[in-house]
Specification:
CATH superfamily of chain B: P-loop containing nucleotide triphosphate hydrolases
Radius of gyration of chain A: 21 Å
Number of strands of chain B: 12
Number of domains of chain B: 1
Largest sheet of chain B: 8 strands, mixed
Order of helices and strands of chain A: EEEHEEHEHHHHHEHEHEEHHEEH
Distance between the termini of chain A: 48 Å
CATH class of chain B: Alpha Beta
Oligomer: heterodimer
Strand order of the largest sheet of chain B: 6-7-8-3-9-10-12-11
Structural class of chain B: alpha/beta
């Protein structure tokens, strides 16, 4: 069995705006997710992390389009499917979505139908993907509700989503996503709308079900705290590209890319005792005016004229095993540490 | 330029506040009636959104008001500013001319007071009128209060825009042309142009990305120093609260369960709910794992549990907690802090 369940190679998803300009929302990213592990895709608004997850499941709507790259899914029973190469109406896509790969979203109500009972919605997933009858599907569904920690699941089964709290709805969505024992779960900001005590409950639930089912998780989040708590590996995105990738411990402890360093320094908890927070100057540029050279250079304390602001964006290089960074000055920065001392 | 406040007389006369106190909230309560449907509407229940909340805010201090959705923190903040009328309780507020009880003040007297207390909102997208230019949005308070017009108005708008890190040429643009962080700066400029002494910031940085959030927090700190502002900082992000606030008040189900200096609260939370809340924070440190310290969810505010509202979820609950409502009382501590828990 191949060690990774999913491998994304040089994926580019572009959108065309009213002026006919191509917006490079995702612009050549590559990563793979090992079986049973959790990869977090982290970044600020507009970095392309959600478009990446939609691209994997081929859910990108017009005027967006995957223009290049491969999304290789490698199911347990063998074989390899390039999801990016399938036609929109290919049967295999329906088999993958909700079967081998399922997804949960930030706002549970977008994933739940308000006019169907919770039971009907869970049973639909089972009946679509498993050769069982309604009675067996009902039993499986109730079992799953119990597993996600819902009290009196038989009663809940016949309730409608509006009768539940936000935390309970997210549990239902998780039950729906995992009832067919997928090989990959894509969780797009699964706890962002929830309060912190409920967030802890839901993250712990995802983790324990992940172990039980043996699935991999692609976690999309803006929250480096959530990354530290649940992910094994992390890829940091900025303007449609991955700027740094590696183990959670390595990236959070020793970030090598100036953007990752800036992000971590903006966190209040890592500025303990300081009156002012470090912040990254300026704002994320719009996709219509991505700077030449390294897209981060206008905000970067290490940027060097003639080196960082010209040509193509830097490619990710491996500095040490299992660790990549897309910065031409990564080695110098690592030696000099502080921005002011170097260059 | 100062408005005339109603004379401080009669039985509603507030007591004097110590010089150091900016705001004293005493027994603040806000209940919403639940009406039956149908032709004859009867009250069938009560939502106890805020229930007997008391605390003081010192001049120049930042007090964090934290709690989860439905804890009543936003309702409490709005009732303090009289954006909502409190059901009962007192809100003693130090104005430039004396102490007033905001809870008792008639509507018409409030308008003048708005110069001294302002609010910054969470959502920089819905809180700015898309049809108004930045100059109109930021200058509107001066126009409403007839404090400036013409060239003076223009000058003061430009001045405050500079203070919040925007440029003079931004003033003819519309909100859609700005990023979230810049919009929040516009909202801050509007709140500050009247030179208030007291600011309620309701989730003021919650909608912002982390790098921008840091910029806005720094700005709020700088402005606090320059204008000697007192902040009531309503927030759910404990990481931000820990950095930004001098003291923290924790709300649960409409009540204050604990109030303490920030450092002490985070080092040694006393209330079981505060303990659960802090344990659940996902710190960005792989070696500091969060805990699911508490099961269940916040109760329905129209059907609060008897006794301590937290008792059904509390790991330390004992018999008295089910029937007796704990009062917020001073705790034994070198620094002044209070907790509402029956456990010794």
């Amino acid at each position: 069995m191949h060690p990774s369940v999913l491998e994304v190679r040089n994926l580019r998803t572009h959108f065309v705006n009213d002026e006919g300009q191509a917006l490079r929302a995702v612009d050549g990213i590559s990563f793979s997710i090992p079986r049973g592990r959790t990869l977090a895709l982290v970044g600020e608004s507009g970095c392309g992390k959600s478009v990446t997850s939609y691209s994997i499941l081929r859910l990108v709507q017009k005027p967006g389009r995957i223009v290049e790259g491969q999304v290789l899914l490698r199911p347990r029973q063998g074989g390899e499917i390039d999801l990016a190469a399938l036609r929109d109406d290919d049967e295999r896509l329906y088999d993958v979505r909700g079967g081998k790969v399922s997804m949960i979203f930030q706002e549970p109500m977008t994933a739940l139908s308000p006019v169907h009972t919770i039971g009907d919605q869970i049973m639909e997933a089972i009946l679509l993907h498993q050769p069982v009858g309604r009675e067996a599907a009902r039993r499986t569904g109730i079992d799953m509700l119990r597993k996600v920690g819902m009290s009196s699941p038989e009663r809940r089964f016949d309730q409608f989503p509006h009768e539940l709290s936000g935390g309970m709805r997210q549990r239902v969505v998780i039950a729906m996503a995992l009832v067919c024992r997928p090989e990959l779960l894509i969780a797009d900001e699964p706890t962002t709308a929830l309060d912190v005590t409920i967030q802890a409950q839901i993250l712990a639930l995802i983790k324990s079900l992940q172990v039980e089912i043996g699935c991999s998780v692609l976690l999309i989040t803006h929250d480096l705290g959530v990354v530290a708590q649940v992910a094994d590996e992390v890829a940091v995105m900025y303007l449609g590209r991955i700027v740094e990738q590696g183990s959670v411990r390595a990236i959070l402890r020793q970030p090598r890319h100036p953007y990752t360093q800036g992000l971590l320094r903006s966190l209040p908890s890592l500025n303990e005792g300081r009156r002012r927070l470090s912040s990254i100057p300026g704002t994320v540029p719009s996709l219509t005016s991505i700077p030449p050279g390294c897209p981060f250079h206008p905000r970067c304390a290490f940027a060097q004229p003639g080196r960082c602001d010209v040509g193509a964006a830097p490619v990710a290089r491996s500095l040490e095993p299992e660790r990549w960074v897309a910065c031409v000055r990564a080695e110098e920065i690592a030696v000099g540490q502080e921005g002011k001392e170097v260059g | 330029m100062n408005p005339s406040y109603p004379p401080l007389s009669g039985n509603a006369a507030p007591t004097a506040l110590p010089e150091t106190v900016m705001l004293s909230v005493e027994g603040l309560t806000k209940h919403f009636p639940i009406w039956s449907r149908g032709f004859v509407r009867r009250q069938v229940g009560t939502i106890r959104a805020v229930d007997d909340v008391s605390f003081q805010l010192l001049r120049g201090e930042t007090l964090g008001l934290v709690g989860e959705s439905g804890s009543g923190k936003t309702t409490a903040a709005r009732a303090i500013l009289r954006a909502l009328s409190p059901s009962s309780g007192r809100v003693l507020f130090r104005t430039t001319t004396g102490v007033v009880d905001l809870a008792q003040l008639p509507e018409r007297s409030l308008k003048g007071l708005r110069q001294e207390m302002q609010m910054i909102f969470q959502d920089p997208y819905s809180s700015l009128n898309p049809r108004m230019t930045v100059a109109q949005i930021v200058g509107e308070p001066l126009v409403i209060h007839r404090l400036a017009r013409g060239a003076e108005l223009e000058d003061r708008v430009v001045e405050i825009l500079r203070k919040v890190g925007l440029k003079a040429e931004h003033r003819e643009r519309y909100p859609h042309a700005f990023s979230g962080g810049q919009r929040q700066r516009i909202g801050i400029a509007r709140a500050l142009i009247l030179r208030p002494a007291f600011i309620v910031a309701d989730e003021a940085v919650s909608a912002l990305d982390v790098s921008v959030q840091a910029q806005v927090l720094n700005l709020l700190k700088d402005l606090q120093e320059e204008f000697r502002l007192t902040y009531l900082f309503v927030a759910h992000n404990l990481d931000v609260v820990k950095h930004f606030c001098d003291r923290v008040a924790v709300m649960y189900a409409g009540r204050l369960v604990e109030i303490a200096p920030t450092r002490e609260l985070f080092q040694r939370p006393l209330h079981p709910y505060t303990q659960a809340l802090l344990a659940a924070v996902p710190w960005p440190d792989p070696d500091r794992k969060m805990n699911v310290a508490v099961a269940g969810e916040i109760p329905d505010p129209s059907r609060l549990p008897t006794g301590c509202a937290f008792h059904p979820r509390c790991p330390d609950c004992f018999e008295r907690c089910r029937s007796e409502r704990p009062l917020l009382l001073p705790a034994t501590s070198p620094t002044p802090r209070s907790v509402a828990c029956l456990k010794e």
